[in-house]
Structure formats: C-alpha cells, structure tokens
Fold Band 7 domain-containing protein.
Amino acid sequence: MQSETYMEKSRLVQRSIMNTSNGTVQSGLDRGGGTDIPIVLVPWGACCFHCCMEVPTGSHVLWEKFDQAKDMGYGPGIKFCLPAWERISHVVSAQTISYSAPARGVPTADNILVDLNVVIQFTIPDKASAQLFVYKLGAKRLDALLAAACEEGVRALVYGSNHENVMDLASSSGSTAAIQASLTENLHKYGVTVRSMIITKTKLPTDLQTRLEKTTTMISEMENAEKQNGNDQLVVKNEGEVKLVEVEKDRDRRIQALEKDLVLLKTEAEEKVAAEEGRKNVLLENATAAQSRAALKNTHEQEMAEVQGKQFKAELVQSTTTRCAEMKVKADQDARTLISLAEAEYTVAESTAESLKEEGRAEEVAAEKLQEKRKYELMWDKLDILKDIAKTGRKVVTGERAESMMNELCNMKTAAPATMSRR
C-alpha cells in the first residue's frame, strides 16, 4: 500500500546576507525544513571599504570589481581593508540539491488520475558554472524551468502508460532517463549538472486504490488458500507415509529386539548353568580339601595337647612342691617374728602401765595441793576487795545481795584459821 504522505513542491530562492562569514553563509544556505531552497546568497555592499571581510569555504564565491565580474584570486580566509569596488557579489551553494516537483492529477493511458512525487538532484560543480548560472539563469528562473520541464516530462511519461504500469515507475531510475537527459541538455549551458531524477511515490485515486487493494487481497487470499490446501494435502500424505514408515520401522525394531532378547536369554541361561556347575565343583573340591586339612589338624592338635599336658603336669607338680616348701619356711619365720614382737610389746605395755600409775598418784596429790592454793588465793582477793570497799566509805547493801555477802564473809572467817594452821 502506497504511503498517504506526499512532498510539497520545492522553491529555489536567492537570499541577501549581511556579511560573508562562514556562520552567516551556512545559516543562509540552510533550508530550515521548509520548501524554500536557498541556492544563491547576495551580501550587502560597503560604502567606502571593507575593514574586515571573511571569504567563506565550501561554496562558490563570485567577485566583482567596479560592478563587473572578475576573479580576484582571493582564497578562503579573512581579508583586511578591501576597497568597496572589490566585493563578493554572490555566494553559490556547492552542495548537491534535492528538488521536489510533485505532479498532481496526471492522467494515464486508461484515463486514471494519479499523483506522483518526483525528486531531481542537481549541483553546480565549479566556480565557472556558478558564474554562468548567476548571470544567465538565476535561482527564480531555474525553479520555473525545473517545475515546467518536470511537469511536462512526467505527464508525457504517465500518459503513455496505464495505471498498472504507473505504479511500477516509483523508485525506477530507468523510467525517467529520457526526462533526465532532456533536463541535462537544457541546463548544462547554464552551469547546472543534473545528477538524477527519480519518481519516489505514486498514488492512485482513493476509491480505485481501495478496490485494487481489495482485489489484490482477495487474489492473495485465494492463492494462499490454494497453497494452504495443497500444503495440507501434502502434509496429510506425508504424515501418512511417515506414520506407515514409522510403524514398519517400529515392527522391525521390535522383532529385532525380541530376537536379540531371545539370544541373550539363551546365552545367559547357558552361562548361568556353566557357572553353577563350576561353582559346585569348586565348592566340592574346597569341602574335600577342608575336611582333609581339618582331620590332619585335629590329629596334630591331639598329639600336641598330649605332649603339652604331660609337660604342664610335670611343671605344675614341681612348681607346687617348691612353692609349698617356700611357704612353709616363710610361715615359720613369720611365726617366730610375731612371737618376739608380742613378747616385746607385752614388756613395753607393763612398763607403760606402771609409769601411768605413778603419774596418776602424783597428779592426785598435786591436784589437792592446787585446790587449796586456789582457795587461799581467792580468799585473799576477796579480802583485798573488802579492804578497798572499807577505804572508800560506808555502803548500805540490803536484800539477797547483803545476805550473800554475809555468807561469803562467814565462810571466809571459818576457812581462814584452818588455812593459817596448815601453813
């Protein structure tokens, strides 16, 4: 389906600029996304002289001296103090320019009105071509010439084709070769070189486009349905053949597997029988050999046991006799030793008892003397206390305490003469 967006017609223009600096020139040649294409820039003139002038790069610079075209030989860069009669008259773009010249309502051979987008790419290759272009043609007349030539050539091309062939003109450079050759011949003398001319888009009327799209869609659907039907039949057939082949392969595979299993089972059975026979023979041989070894071992062990028993009996009798004699001698020695110790302990015990008796008698006498001494000392202590009391003055004591003191004094008076008599 063709796109619904179509280009607007381009317009070649000439602009004026304040100075010729690179920035100003680039800004002046920028089309800014619109339909105007600046191709020639005309700088403002000076009244006396140019204090400072920059010769731009990337463009064709045309000079004038006394209002006559002349190549001054100045290269790009800044020039100082140039007189007013030496000036840059035009700056021509050296880039390849894409010019859009759409054609609307162009009739075909079968009287169908179509719209086309045509793009022409051209350039001004050198300074001499730029001078021819500026002084013989100019931007405005080039715009009119391109529009007229493109319109005329495209209408003639489309009128000679029906609407089906017109749709094939898009993006085909061969279809516009004759128009491009005619433009090249007409514009070469003005310094313009046409690089290419191509029809980028074509558009039929909306209702016709819709019908064609529906027709194309139906045809495509029918073709797809036929292809799908053929594919389905082929798929079914192939699937049946594949399944049949798979069934046969599966049958053969199962037969082969069963045959292999049968052979394997027979082989395993024979191997098991042979293995059992061999194991039985080995076990029988091992049992016979083990029985013989056990009999020999028992006979040998019996003989060794008899010899060892006799030796052990003799050794046991001898060792027992020797131990009994040693124990008897030791017992006699221990008995004599214990008797001697007992007699000595008895003697010591008698001596100890006598000494303890003497000590007891001495302690009894000493205890009586010590008791009398303590009583005597206590009596004198009490007398000293009474003496101190008598010195300090009279004191009245009554009650149980007085009675106790009187009893003690009486006892002291009674005990004092006896003590003094003993002393």
About this structure: The longest strand covers residues 113-123. The radius of gyration is 76 Å. Confidence is low (pLDDT under 50) at residues 418-423.
